[in-house]
Design brief:
The protein is α+β, with helices and mostly antiparallel strands. The chain has two domains: 133 residues, Immunoglobulin-like (Sandwich), CATH 2.60.40.640; 116 residues, no CATH class. It has four helices and 14 strands. The strands form three sheets. Strands 2, 4, 5, 6, 8 and 9 form a six-stranded mixed sheet that branches. A five-stranded antiparallel sheet has the order 10-11-12-13-14, covered by helices on one side. Strands 1-3-7 form a three-stranded antiparallel sheet, with no helix packed on it. A hairpin with an 8-residue loop joins strand 11 and strand 12. Helix 2 packs across helix 4. The longest helix has 12 residues. It is elongated. This is Sporulation protein. InterPro entries: Spore_0_M (IPR009776). It comes from Bacillus mesophilum. Pfam families: Spo0M.
Amino acid sequence: MSFFNKMLASVGIGSAKVDTKLESDKVMPGSEVRGIVEIQGGNTEQHISDIYLTLNTTYIKESDDKKVNVTGQIERYHITEAFTLNANERREIPFSFILPLDTPLSYGRTKVWLATGLDIKNAVDPTDKDYITVIPNELVNAVLHAVSNLGFRMREVECEQAPHRLRKRLPFIQEFEFVPISGSFRGRLDELEIVFFPVSLNQTEILMQVDRKARGLGGFLSEALSMDESNLRLMIHQSDIPNLQQKLQSVIAQYS
């Protein structure tokens, strides 16, 4: 009977099951994620070689002149050393880790999830998938509010494959695209694109692309040659929050 159970477990029938439970599914980059991994033993004893968590998202990548969605791993965490799980045994393994500062935020189409995996020799490895909501910290939130107060509406947010000049630790960047619907930039800009490159909890670098609106013959020529776009970098610190809207307005106005 034991041999029969092992044969079944090797194809996933009556094997161990895993379920990850988070203390909170809403978290901001740089903060602690805590939870437990619950493992329920199957019909037979099994040797667990490894338990790991991977933090993932999807991003758009160009392949053979086509845009495809691929999974990008943000980080991987080793949870425990190898052990033997007895038949029908139940274990709870606590874990905690700091969510990386460069984790994309849950805006637009961006989805972030935690995948739990068990490595079991000669068996189908059980997995679990838990989505989390990644919210901006105070500094990034202040930037988004300032841009909104300047009359811009968030149109689209996507993770895209990063060009080599912008590639950091991850192979992708998260791009926030805004359009002016009111205020002084309406009629002067087509769109504003922002990418955040966090330096610390209190500091972030911002890459902005200002897309000017074509005006007259010369303007349309500039647009056709992509000369209507200006790229600028700006370092923002926590101390900038009280005057952030004025600072962004001044910078954007120089290129509009």
